[in-house]
Amino acid sequence: MNNNDSSEDLVEKYGTYDPQLDLSSYRHPTLELLPESQRLWLSNVKTSYRNFELPLLLENAPSIIVRDLYHHPNVLLAGTIASGKTQFIYNQIISWLYVFHPAELKFIICRSKPVDYNSIAKIERHFLSKLPGAEPAIAESGQVAKTINALLIECDHRLDLFTTAGVKTIKDYNNLFIHRKLNPADGHRFLSNIVLIMDDMQTFLHGDVTSSLISLTQRNLYTGIYFIGATSQIMSRSITPQLRANFSVRLAMRLMSQNESRKILDRVGAEKLNPPGELIFEQGDRLLTVKQPFVDYDVIQNVCDFVGSQRGYPNAYLLPITNVEESIFFSDFDIYDRDPLFEESTRLIVMHQQGSTSLIQRKLKLRYNRAGRIMDQLEAAGIVGSFEGSKAREVFYADEHALEQYLETINASNSSKLSNLSISESILRVAGSKIDKIVEQPEKLVQPKSGKENIAIKSPNDSCHNGNDSRKAQLAIAIFILAMILIIYLISGWEGVVNWLK
Ligand SMILES: Nc1ncnc2c1ncn2[C@@H]1O[C@H](COP(=O)(O)OP(=O)(O)OP(=O)(O)O)[C@@H](O)[C@H]1O
């Protein structure tokens, strides 16, 4: 991170993050947005943060004290109700907004109260990460569980990318990427830091969520994925010893008893703090007590307005969808009925970040009806959102890399489902798909007599002729394939048939 980066440097460094829309014109919030009393420390933060990868602010005055999340990616903050935990989180967010570019940092908010994080929605397309279709700040336990699982997948992708690049940390990886040593065509991309923030974490922690969080906090060191959890339920069984052991930074605001203090800090002390805003943490071999800054919520809103009013990315940074099988096999989307131009259309839509039927029609030179059918399939497959009148549909994949992973998964799901089908079903499926490929003809674009759009006009006879021809061709090919199957069966049995079908 370097605050002195010019716009050109940023394009040079992050241009490939989103080739469709660079944010070179992005401006950090100005100190004038803050009341006089807050300007000095935030200006100090801008200078002090330069030496850290992702600083966590612990004290702002008289000196700035931070922990680098880069080396301590998991943080637990405990405190009684109204001790100042949410304010602590606001302070982190506000200080990050003053220092980071949207390409460098994303956060995910899980919150239990509806009001606490409303302003965050304004910076969704700049600084937020989420699952496709999720709210900017998530409150529902099921969504939280899916988000953690998606982060586990993101974590594994990142570790794979590191292995390919021959590095062990996000810092080294991004360094290679910035210096053009890693080719985006091989799936490499600039990796932003992603911070999962869970306010009132006890609300979300149960069974599977706790075990997923344990896995995430065990694996995320140097991957650029971080976790900050705040809780008032210190003695809750949801903070298991295994989870607790993964927090290398443990902070306390006012706690109810010495017992609670020991559970968080291994020592007494937090029970004596003055709420709201006093914080205690381990500094060297002693405990240090500091007072947290207080930034009024209106100020946070102003800063978010400033960021949000600027040009952003088309979407929040979308996390990989975790359960493709669920979204594909239990939706209306029939994987075998995909239009042959389905994949090409998905790439087009994601590349242009525009869920538009006429885009598919124009670029692939299709009739409007067929483009419309493809768009329906894209919606059923969870690639675009639903029809919203004159607005283009929302595109749920931010870049081609994420899309390719999705396509790989559905193709893999396709073959695994195929292997589960009965042999006779398989034969029909494969025969069908082979026939589709053979009878597929590029459609001719018929120009309308007037109008700007290339809306194709279908001749009434077209479908009839095509239908008869293709039925004859299908019949001939089906007979041919069945004959082949019979011959292979006689020579090498069912195993040979199955191999041939594959
Ligand atoms: N450092 C601070 N200085 C002054 N007032 C503060 C400070 N931190 C928080 N407050 C005030 O204390 C109240 C409670 O703060 P906050 O909501 O951050 O607490 P919390 O621990 O998150 O509470 P809960 O457990 O209910 O979520 C708020 O009115 C807030 O404005």
TrEMBL record:
Record protein name field: DNA translocase FtsK
Amino-acid biosynthesis found in the keyword field: no
Chain residues that bind ATP: G79, T80, I81, A82, S83, G84, K85, T86
Keyword terms of this UniProt record: ATP-binding, Membrane, Nucleotide-binding, Transmembrane, Transmembrane helix
Transmembrane segments annotated in the record for this chain: 473-492
Entry-linked SMART domains: Ftsk_gamma (SM00843)
Domain of life per record: Bacteria
Span of domain FtsK: 61-262
UniProt entry tagged with the keyword Transmembrane: yes
Pfam families, sorted: FtsK_gamma, FtsK_SpoIIIE
PANTHER family given in the database record: DNA TRANSLOCASE FTSK (PTHR22683:SF41), SPORULATION PROTEIN RELATED (PTHR22683)
